[in-house]
Amino acid sequence: MNTVRIIPRIDIKGPNLVKGIHLEGLRVLGNPEEFAQFYYQEGADEIMYQDVVASLYERNGLQDIIRRTSTNIFIPITVGGGIRTIEDIKTTLRAGADKISLNTAAIRNPNLIREASERFGSSTIVVAIEAIKQADGKYLAFVDNGREYTGVNVLEWAQQIQELGAGELLITSVDKEGTGEGYDLELIRQVAASVSIPVIAHGGAGNKQQVGELFKQTTAAATCIASMLHYSSLTKVTTAPADHSKQEGNFDFIKKGKAFNKTEMISISELKSFLNDQSIYCRI
Amino acid sequence: MSTRAKIGIIDYDLSNLFSVMQACKYVGMNAEIVSDPDQFTKYDGLIFPGVGAFGAAMQNLERTGANQALLERVNAGIPLMGICLGMQLLFSSSEEFGDHKGLGIIPGKIVKFSTEKLRVPQIQWNKINEAEPGQWKTSPLENCKAGEFMYFVHSFYALPDRAEDILSTTEYHQTYCSSVQVGHVFACQFHPEKSGPKGLQIYENWFRRLKG
Hints:
heterodimer; A: alpha/beta; TIM Barrel; eight-stranded parallel beta barrel; globular; B: alpha/beta; Rossmann fold; nine-stranded mixed sheet; four-stranded mixed sheet; 5 helices; 34% strand
């Protein structure tokens, strides 16, 4: 059978889980490991950790987070952010990651995709594309959390990623990311139609109907969801985020204890039963 | 067998040893990673994991003599659990990037999913079903229910020559063999160590059966 995967995406800055809009303006929401554990128990199909700052200084901290997570979470863990070399991939896999997500380094040096998939197996290598729609309707790939222009056409890049041996493709709509307005279905449809490897759609999920539409209207195999799941889970996870440095992000939101009103309050299990009821099958 | 049964996880430079080790620890196995084939005789059971390419894996096994050492242990009746590529390598041959000879413990070959109608690799949770009713009772799948979801990642699948070797089947456009049991050898295409609590149960069952 064909099943779709629901993958909570946990953006990490320093020791904390953060969430932005259009990949910017990061709010600190909590402890990444506790969220990961909560999602595992709720029936997440995989976990995605994305180091959004990926500064050299923080690398050891991230490795520790991966190490601890992989000792008590028995679903696939994908790790992305700042991974540039075969050596970085090896270190991250040894810390307990199952898959590696490449973006910036892959665009700068596409051969890294070939080398990495030959060395570690295609299914270990996910390539992420951050897409921004241009005035002429075309989609271009950006890097560095959607900040840096590359001029690379998304669809051509997607095909090249497949030819180079990547096992999966993660497509983020920077325009929709964090907004809760729904996916960029046109983008995802085009990308999913241009490759035969599984495509993970990311950016814009705000309610269960939109997730249903994604799987009805495109051939995406999975989706990464952040805001909708994180804001729904805030009151259920209790470990306070680490507050040891003012540089680690914006704590205002969590301190005020306000609710986020752009996304539906829903758990992974509720989302999955909704999808199953719509004949969009997933593991329950 | 003693309660201190010792398990070796075979390292041939191409496997997801870390997650396999974590699962072993979690279910209380006394497991360690072993790369020297001369040491295989130290263990009461062997786990043969694997991620990556068939040809490269066989080369690594042949280079160190691990292929012969593994065959000897299997012939001596030591329980073996093969996972993913570790299942495929037990077969006679594979079509992966040219023809390759496998270990030949299970007659049959490894072939590729057709990319015409399917997303390949298959990366998803999929159901396992009994090939024959009641068959799982005497296997590490003993307390799985029919249609249990397991996590799969693969582009190639096994075509065993003998129907009786098939322990479970899975549907991915066609029905294919997702696990086998032949004597003391159990092997699965899916990753029990990545299949949540139900997958961990398979590790636990395999270990308990081994202890007798």
